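Hi P.,

Sorry for the delay on this. The queue was packed all week, but I finally got your sequence through. Input first:
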Amino acid sequence: MILLDAVYINNGGGKILLDYLILKLIDNKVGAYLLLDHRTIESFNGFSNENINIEFIKPSLFTRHKFYKENNQQFSKILCFGNLPPIKKMEATTYTYLHQRLFLDQSFSENISCKDKIAFYLKSKILALIAKNTDYWIVQTKSMANLLEKSFKNVNPDHVLIHPFYPPLTNDCVVSRDPCHFVYVSSGADHKNHEVLLQGFCLFYDKFQKGELHLTIDSSFIHLQQKIKQLQLKGYPVINHIEPTRDIIANLFQKSKYCLYPSLSESLGLTIIEALENGCDIIGADLPYLYEVCRPSATFDPKSPESLFEILNSLSTNSLPSSKQMLHNNIEDLIKLLQ
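Then the structure:
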């Protein structure tokens, strides 16, 4: 039996990937013991499968270490899905799926809150201390592999595996696509760079008095919620969808001609892929992560609202090339690795 350790995954893109991975384990009849964050317990209400066992614990280093200490010989393979290897070296072959770029690269730290900056710094130090406890690393892109090898000098490049995966996001709705209907599906985390996006869109709307910007910021990001309300009161068509369903997200992409993507750091950029697979073109930050996922229609300086405005302004006179997806689902190879 394998252990799928996802103790530090409870929301966002990580939770979407976790749910998809569990579904594929079930489809392939892979026996697994799931060690999960207790905050996800409601999402597993009614779950039952003869090949899957689940234990919920608090996402603390102590509680997780206690589990590993008590179950050192119970598993043939371990997949640590929450970026951190076990605190102690295990007898089982251990894989660590590293999908948080900010643990390795904080080059945009000036755009991150002090609280998040401290949190990422501490987690990066913990990661460095326990990196030796994993046998293999799994990442989503070549640039993440390069960054990992650069960050940890003792990493064997042959033990860094690239396995991007993601669930398909489609529905059967047929909708008309509005060329001035823009969408950005993302959390409200600082590195997602909503401030530049909002300023750039408002410059566009000030000039043309047309367009809509659709966002998906949840209620925990109070400062952004307040910013959006202030813009709405001023007449700017910024629409925020709080905790949208997957069908609603697919519908947003299908209505939009362009997905605007100003994020300063991504290990994958899941919603870029979802946008592309729903026929949406990408106008994104001129950063390396974007080019690994797609060939965008246009790029802008993610620190400059004026740079984004220049691209949006050009839409009135120029037709941008279509975007092209460059990265594809590799879930089947990941499942084979775990079997």
